[in-house]
């Protein structure tokens, strides 16, 4: 093979691999931001509930009013923090996993089982997101409101759930797709250039799902 043609193929293979890794890094940056948002919301919720407890107990004595909507607002904040943190938890391997049989499987079989589990999660997340968005549209069209003090339009909390499950669906679908494309790129690169066993990787990129003891997302 002429050196120029060989260099062109190597450059093409490296570019494809770099694009796949760039997608993974962008995905992790998004989900890391959602993880930080969920953490800040839980912190804000703790201060909010603490304030309202103090206001209800000693509000008249110290001159601070109670919000009277603690339960409803807390439910909305909890819904955002929990559902919008699903995707980050999935990418960082924070969800509970039953791995009794995994230690007895080969590396190849374990990888396929992880892919199957991820695709199953993606299917369920897509199904939930679709049903929730159908409910959001129905609540929007009918003008349905909550039977609470705020009379909140129901499409708002339902939309919060829809966004959270949509992020989870994106994470569950893109993770195995990116891993598969990266694996194909590495194999193709190794087949064409067997002397090169290493490939460029982006700093802060997490390992393949299910291949480590937990993933910490620390993009630049």
Summarize this, please?
The chain has 220 residues and is mostly helical. Helix content is 70%, strand content 0%.
Number of domains: 1
List the helices and strands in order. HHHHH
As a percent range, the share of helical residues equals over 70%
- Quickly count the helices: 5
Overall morphology: elongated
Q: What is the CA-CA span between the terminal residues?
A: 39 Å
Mean pLDDT across residues: 79
Let me know the largest β-sheet. none
Beta percentage is under 5%
Q: Radius of gyration, Cα only, in angstroms?
A: 23 Å
Give the strand tally.
Answer: 0
Contiguous low-pLDDT stretches (5 residues minimum) are: 197-220
Determine the structural class based on helices, strands and strand pairing: mainly alpha
Q: Can you characterise this structure?
A:
This protein starts with a helix and ends in a 28-residue tail after the last helix. The chain is elongated and about 75 Å long. Helix content is 70%, strand content 0%. The protein has five helices and no strands. With 220 residues, the chain is an all-alpha fold. It has one domain. Helix 2 (70-83) packs parallel to helix 5 (155-192) and helix 4 (107-142) runs antiparallel to helix 5 (155-192).
Set out the fold topology.
Blueprint: H1 3-62, H2 70-83, H3 86-91, H4 107-142, H5 155-192
Quickly list its features:
mainly alpha, 0% strand, elongated, disordered C terminus
